[in-house]
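Predict both folds.
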Amino acid sequence: MKTGFFSSIPKTSHFRGVVDEKNFFPAPDDWLIVIADIRSSTRAVAEGRYKDVNMIGGAVICAVRNATGSGDWPFVFGGDGASLLLDAVHREEVEAALVRTRTLARDDFQLDLRIAFVPVRDVRQRGRDVLVARHEVSPGNSLALFGGGGVELADELVKNEETASHYVIRDYSLPGLPDLSGLSCRWEPLHSQKGRIVCLLVKSQADDFRQRQAITSEFLENLARHIGTELNQASPVSSASLRFRWPPKGLAAEARATRAGSSFARRLAQLYLESFLQWMMELFDRQGGHYNPSVYREEIRTNSDFCKFDDVLRMVLDCTVEQVAGIRQLLDRMHAAGQIDFGIFETEKALMTCLLFDLESSQHLHFIDGDEGGFWSAAKEYKLQVSSHETPARRAAGNPIES
C-alpha cells in the first residue's frame, strides 16, 4: 500500500463522513511529515498582506507536487503554510524545492518560511499516530485529512526550542527558482453573501483518537443544525461570490512566484495577456480552448477546501449574523463541557489561492482562508484555550492513543 498510498485509501465524498475514525488509515512508518509555515507572520498580517501569506502557503504544496511529479502526497493547507506526508525517498528533491521556495518567500515577499521534516516513526515512538483519510471533492481531485495526533505533535516538535534543531532545515540557499507552475492568484476576494465570513478552529480535548473523532462528529452535526443546511451550502465559494476583474490584484504576486525560467517583466506581461483573455471569456461567458467559464466556476465551488482537518478542524463559512450567534453559543457550550477548544474570527471576505494542474481534465484545487488574517486571527483565541489546560510536558511528549 506504500506505492500510491493516498490514492489507494478508500475515498469518501462527504466531509462530515470523512471524520469518522473508520475512514482513517496509518501512514507508512518510513514516510516523513513535512511542516512548512511562515514564522512571525504578525507583521505581514498587520500590513494587510494576507494574500501574500496565502500565496506562500499554496506555493509549498505546488513546489512539492512539481518537484516529485506526483500529486499522491496527502496535504492540508493551513493559511500561512501547509503540512504534507512524503515518501522519504523524495526527501532530497523536495528539500531543494522548498529551500528555493523559502528564498523566494524571503527575497520577493519578505516572509520567513520555516521548513522541517519529521519522520513518522518519531511521532509514533512518542505515542501519537499519523492517520490519513481521503476526501474526494470531485473525480481526480482529493484532499487529505490527518488524525491520530501525529501531525499536530510534529508541528509542536518543530516549534519547540529543545527539539527544533533535529527537524528544521538550516538556513542555506540554492541557485535558481522553484517550479511553481500552476499556482494562481487571480480571483477577487469572496464577499459574504449572507452577512459574515466565519473562520473556525476546533479541536477535541480528548486524548483517545476514537473519542476525538466522535466529539468532532458531534460538533459537525450540531453545527449543521445551527446553520440549517448542509456544510457545502455554507461555503464562501458560490456563483454569486466569484468575481473576476482585470487586471487581477494578485497578478504581480503570481508573476513573482511563477517566473522560473523568465524575467519578472516578461512573466508579468504574459499574465496580463492570459488574464485579459480569461476576463473576456468570463465577461461574455464564452468558451475558449479548454476554458469554459460556467463549468470552471462550478468546478471551483466543488474543488474548494473551505473545510479541512489536521487534528484540528478548520472551516471558513458564509453565515448570517444569527447563525454566527448560534455557532458561538455551540462553541461556548462544548468548551464549557470540556469537549473542545476553539478559536473564531469574523470578517467580511474570504481569500482564494488556486492550484491549476490540467484544465482539460478538470484537475485543480482552491485553498480558502478568511481575510484579515483568517485562520491566523482565529488561532489567537484557540491557542489561549489550549495553553490553559495543556502542560508543556504533555505537548512535547504526546499522548498515547488506542489503535
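Second protein follows, with its predicted C-alpha cells after the sequence.
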Amino acid sequence: MRILIWLVIMLFPFGASADQRPSVDKVHETAAQLFSEMPKLEPVPMIEGHCGADDQVHDRIAYCTSSNTILLSDAGRPSDVAAYEMAHLLGHAVQVRHGVADIALREIRARPSEEVKLRGWVTRQVACIAGFLYAQAGGSAFEIKAHYREEPLTRSYWGRNPLSLGPRVSIGISARQEWFDIGLKGDLAACAPGEFGSELLLEALIPTQ
C-alpha cells in the first residue's frame, strides 16, 4: 500500500494536473520557430483603442493583420486560457501569412451563399493549427468546456484595421475541441477540413533540426 501511494505521489506530485500548460510566451516563441512572418507580440493595457478595436472586440487578445501584431492585454496574460487563445490567434496568422486566408477569401467572394460553410472550414483548420502549436510548445490536453461556459472566440478578435469589423464565426465547442485535438497529435498534415488542404501549411513549416 505504501509503495502504491509513493508511486502516485511521484507521478502526480502535490495534486498537480496531468495536463501540461505552456506559457503564452512559449506558444508565441514556438510559432516563430516553426513558421516565418509570425506576428510580433505587443502587450497593451487593454485591446480597445488599438487597431480600430471597440468594446465589442475580444478584451484579452486580438490579432491585427494590418500591422501583423498580436495585442495581449494586461487582463489576458495571467488568464488560464492565455496559451490556448494565443495558439488560436497564431493559427490565423499562419493562414494569413502563408496564403490560406487569400484562398478562403477568394472562395467566399465567389460563393457567397456558402460563406458560413467556408468560414467554418477555415475556423476548423485554425483550431487544428492551434492544437499543433500548443503541443509543440510543450502543452498536452486542453479541455475547452472546462474553461468556457460558451463557445470561445466568436466575437471579433482578428482581422485588418478596424478590428471592430472583424469576422465572427461559430462552429460550436465540440468542433473546436475535435480539431484542436487533431492538431494536438502533432501531424500538421491532418489539418485539412473540407476543401482546405494542408499543403500550404506544410510548405510553410520550417524544418526542425
